């Protein structure tokens, strides 16, 4: 027995896989940003985590709204499409700024560490040092915890914790990985958005509402032409009836124009 295979059979697993990857990457980036105190703004991984389920909800809502005959739902779906694309672009752009250029990435890391040091945030600096077994940022004596005071010198971290490397390289590597996770999650969401539109017979893209509206206008334009054609047909029928023979008395047939 032949197996019915269409593009939907391949697209549905792909959309599910892309949604799952996007959700996992978003959750990982969120966890790393909050636990390792990365300079990446927290709202970036938060939105990245929430966007996969929100995208699926938006696709389902668009499918329902596209069945409506009114134009109002179509306008809402267009606005939803534009807002969705703009927010994804902003998330990807901000994440890329924490990757390139190298000077800007280094500046972000230095400013974040300096903020913790100025505010004596021992919890943040200690969490980074314990996670990567390092001391300080640029060197093992650079703004390390325990902070320098009358009881501790610059080498307090090295002496008490025994770490022999600085935190800059491992911390920067995690920041790069996290930013790439955000970018990959955004790409996966775009794949879901485009792939849903490609499903045959269920084109639910937010961009196809304009096509539906144009199709309705074409139908409205063609209707007067059909009505005019019907009137012309009636007129032709009257003309043909006018040429029909009319019987009179005496079995004599004459042509009488009505």
UniProtKB/TrEMBL annotation:
Which residue ranges are recorded for the region named Disordered?
Answer: 214-258
* The entry's keywords: Membrane, Transmembrane, Transmembrane helix
Keyword Secreted set for record: no
| Annotated transmembrane regions | 12-30, 36-59, 79-100, 178-197
Tree of life domain: Eukaryota
Compositionally biased region (Basic and acidic residues): 218-241
* Full protein name: Tetraspanin Tsp3
Taxonomy, top ranks, is: Eukaryota, Fungi, Dikarya, Ascomycota, Pezizomycotina
């Amino acid at each position: 027995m032949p197996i019915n295979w269409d593009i939907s059979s391949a697209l549905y697993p792909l959309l599910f896989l892309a949604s799952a990857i996007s959700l996992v990457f978003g959750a990982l980036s969120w966890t790393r940003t909050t636990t390792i105190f990365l300079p990446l703004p927290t709202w970036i991984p938060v939105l990245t985590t929430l966007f996969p389920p929100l995208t699926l909800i938006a696709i389902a809502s668009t499918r329902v709204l596209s069945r409506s005959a009114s134009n109002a739902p179509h306008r809402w779906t267009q606005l939803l499409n534009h807002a969705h694309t703009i927010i994804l672009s902003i998330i990807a752009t901000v994440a890329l700024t924490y990757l390139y250029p190298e000077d800007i990435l280094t500046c972000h890391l230095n400013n974040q560490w300096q903020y913790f040091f100025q505010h004596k945030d021992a919890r943040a600096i200690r969490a980074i040092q314990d996670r990567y077994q390092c001391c300080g940022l640029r060197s093992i004596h650079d703004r390390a915890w325990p902070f320098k005071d009358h009881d501790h010198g610059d080498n307090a971290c090295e002496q008490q914790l025994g770490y022999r490397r600085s935190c800059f390289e491992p911390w920067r590597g995690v920041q790069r990985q996290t930013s790439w996770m955000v970018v990959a999650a955004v790409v996966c969401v775009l794949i879901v958005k485009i792939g849903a539109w490609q499903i045959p017979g269920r084109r639910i893209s937010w961009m196809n509402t304009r096509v539906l509206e144009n199709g309705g206008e074409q139908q409205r334009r063609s209707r007067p032409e059909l009505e005019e054609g019907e009137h012309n047909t009636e007129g032709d029928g009257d003309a043909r009836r006018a040429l029909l023979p009319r019987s009179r008395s005496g079995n004599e047939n004459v042509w009488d124009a009505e």
